[in-house]
Amino acid sequence: MSKKSIEKEFNICKKSLIHNRLVIAVKNTDETLIAFLKPICFTFREDMPEIPILMSKWRVENPTISAGMFKVTEERTISWLDSLVLQVDDRIIFMIESYDGVYLGHLGFTNYDESRNTIDLDSVLRGVKGMYPGLMSLSVLALMAWGFEKLNIDNIELEVLSDNITAIKFYENIGFETSKTTRLIKVIKEDEEKYEVAKNQLASSNDKYYLRMVYTNKGII
Question: Taking the CB of residue 168, how many other CB atoms lie within 10 A of it?
């Protein structure tokens, strides 16, 4: 698939839910339906009004989801969705919705690389704990299956902080393998503290790294 084709597909997915009925079924190992993946759309304010509140709450409760630290507000979340998700042509985030209409978390795709036909897994977060054991693994597998079958992606990649051992083991259990490490440096900008890729990749004490992990489509999904 070309980059334009990927962007067109994502744009269709992000249309109003009134016109867009795309959902990805998440099934248990016994094929029991446990949830749907519902794309966050341009009209989320009207069609999914609770999303900014939930995403803000989950972000505060799960600070390791990203390398940045900042004051989380509903307004900031709305701005992020508008400018850094919906207006990014090769990025899409799906809400994980139980069959009885409860939002449980989210995940998505971003950064399509046409030269290698790869895309990054993005914003994987379980917001509601304790419901449906294995939900996140099944949701990731369902999204990857859509990526391989509908988008014809060759490989799916992701970045995770090297000290997030729980996340690393989660992805390894799914089948991801570490392909590269990148040294990071702490940067403080106004009201945000974040880690960025260091120009000097020579190791030093107290380093923090991104691990780049990859899942190759082996026809097992």
Answer: 17
